[in-house]
Every structure is written in structure tokens, then in C-alpha cells.
Amino acid sequence: MTAHTVAPDTAHEAQEGWEDIDDLVRRRVPGQSLEAPFYTSEEVYERDLDVVFGRNWIFVAAAAEIPEPGDFVTVEVGAWSVILVRDDDEQVQAFHNVCRHRGSRLLPERQGSVGNIVCPYHRWTYGVDGKLMFAESQPPTFDKSCFSLRPVHVRNLVGLVFICLAQDAPEDFDAVAEVIEPHLRPYELDKAKVAVTYDLAEAGNWKLVMENNRECYHCDGHPELITAYFPLFAYEAEDITPRLKPLYDRYVKAADALAKVRADHGLPLRDHRELDTRQVGFQLSHLPLDGEGKSFAANGAAVCSKLLGSVKDAAFGDLSLHMQPNSWFHLLSDHAVVFSVLPTSTGTSTLRTTWLVHPDAVEGVDYDLDALTLVWRATNDQDRALVAETQVGCTNPGYVPGPYSMVEDDVEAFVNWYVTRLREAIA
């Protein structure tokens, strides 16, 4: 890795006097954090909802959250509300949560199960395929086929559900899915079950939550995590300091062992990093774990006795997947953890975390829920505090963008992906 060029502070003397978002985007300095208005301006927040969340594929749920026909979840993205529902053919469908009659919200609940989708206002009734089935007191010329629920683009990537709210969705999702699917397939997430889901309110702009996730420069602040997780993400051999050398030597040995296990499972051995070189930006790395190498517990011990899918070896490391703009995933031999970030205001966001286990795993028999969730509940809470302090710092008139370190390339890639989307919108 190479250090980024750092522009002098004088390049940001106009920070308090920015004129518009386009001006901010044009003067963004690569290798440095964003200017304060990107995190504090209501105008930028509205642009983010439109350009980022309104025009790109975003991760919204695990398919395991809607396992049976008629099961649904609703997702709130800014002013949008979307229904994800399993249809009678067991496919995941997505519709705007708006009645075609006079606009009433159809399903106010976060999650549930329906036979049909019935509007609570005037009882217009839709099938789980979105087709209008019943509308009382209509004239003979009324054509029900013209009033199906408005669909939303949806893709079920081996158990991970993405939507795109735009009329025309980015076309490179298929190419990315083709790369990712072989890595995900052994875990059979589409057959897994939800152990638990919880939402964490973040007192920070959604971008700060994502930037915090995209680096391990701060991982010493996660004592529960680094008992199993090597805090070396994005490090290269030349980045290793004397303090990290013993840890790095263990990492190399564990990585060699994991490569043999991956080969035995017939998995692709190549990792992928296209975080800012395409619209559906992603990174996929199959990483070793410390100690026993099995799961996120002390010394890498297992937390569930049943292995996911067709995984045969408990020491299967951590398949780490990042997807722009709002998600990351950790898949292990015995469970998976999926994360999504959704904006709720200029300075707040929601982090949703879901733990998935084998469909036959029984709580209290095959796993203990507290042990299963301990590491990421603690890590999320520690990160929540870091994000909140950064949000406060960005509102301080003394804040000016600072340089990224040599091990924060993925933060730079996230910010570059984001700024590129804004530039495209300007064009």
C-alpha cells in the first residue's frame, strides 16, 4: 500500500462557506476524509437518499426472515416503504407499501405473515404476487390488472435480499452475483433460520457508520472481537509493525491451513476487491480466524454445534463480504451475521444485525443465544460510541478533513465510490 497525498489545510479554508453540494463534490481531495457538510447538511442527506439509496442496489434482509409463503418484512428507506414477501412459488417479491386506491400504507408492521395483502382503509385486496384480487364498488369498466402493486427491483443472492428503488437498476449486479455465488453456496443461507435480529440506533450519519466498518485501524478497541478475529484487515506485509509481527506470523500460518480447507471444499481460492471500480462495488475475502479457527468466540471456539449448509470442517474461517453502499457480512462454519445500515436523518442511522444458524439448530441445545451474539453485540456497541463521537466532532468548527492511513484504503474506496455516484448525478 502507498500513503495518500495530503493537501495542506489551506485547501479547506472555504469549508464553512460552501455554496452547494456540487461544489463540495468537485473539490473533494482523494486520500482525505470528507468535509463536514457531507455529515451534517440536510441538503446532502436528501441528495444521499435520492442518489445513493434511491438508485443503487441496497441490502435489506436475509431471505431466512421470510421462510414461508405469505411471510413478509417491511423496510423503511427515507420516505420509501417496501414490502418483501414470499409468494406462493416461494420466490421473494418486493412492492411499494402503498395501496393503488388512495395511497394508504398497506402493512404497518415490521414483520408478519398474510394470506393476502389487504388495505386497512377500503379493503382493496392483493395477492402475495402483487395482483389486485378485490376492489369493491367499481364500475364494469374497471380493470383490476391495471392496479397491481407497484413492484420494486429485488434480487435474492443465495439468501441475501437486495432491492433497487430506481426505475432502471444498475446492470452489473448479475456480473457481481456470478463472482460471489460460488463462495456463498456452501453456507446455504437461503435454508438457514434466524436466531435473532436487533436494531441499533446510531447517533451518526450513515456514512460514518460505513466508514468505521471499512477499516481495522481501530480494532484494538474491540477486545471481544480480536480474541478470534485477526485485526489485520487491509494490511499488507509491508504494513506490519513490530508490535503486530507475532500476530501476523500466526495469521500467515492460519491462512495456509484455511487455503487447504477451502480447496477440499472445491471453493474458488481467489479473493476479490472491486469496491470503487464498478457501481455494484464489493469485496470478498475468506479470512482465517485465530486460535481454533472455528467461530467468533474466545480463542476461535465454536458457538453452535450444527454447521451451516454443506460445510464439513468447523475450522472454516470467516468469509467476509462487503457490498456498497450499506452492508457487510460474516459467514462462518456454524453461523452467519449479516449487517445493513439505513439512514434515518442527517445525524442518525439504524444498524440492523441478524444472526443465522442451521435450520435444525435448537436454542439452548445447539447454541446459547447470549454466546452466539456476544462478540458482535459488544463490537456494535463499541463502534456506536466511536461513530457518535465522530459525528459530534464533525459539527465542531475546528474540524478539517484529515489524511487516511496506509491501512484505510477501504475507507477511501467507500468514499470514492460514494463521491463517484454524486458526480454521476451532477453529470
From TrEMBL:
GO MF terms held by the record: dioxygenase activity
Coiled-coil boundaries: none
Domain Rieske: 57-163
One Pfam family named in its UniProt record: Rieske
Record keywords, A-Z: 2Fe-2S, Dioxygenase, Iron, Iron-sulfur, Metal-binding, Oxidoreductase
Cofactor: Fe cation
Domain of life the protein comes from: Bacteria
Catalytic activity, EC: 1.14.13.-
PANTHER family (UniProt xref): CHOLINE MONOOXYGENASE, CHLOROPLASTIC
Name of the protein in question: Aromatic ring-hydroxylating dioxygenase subunit alpha
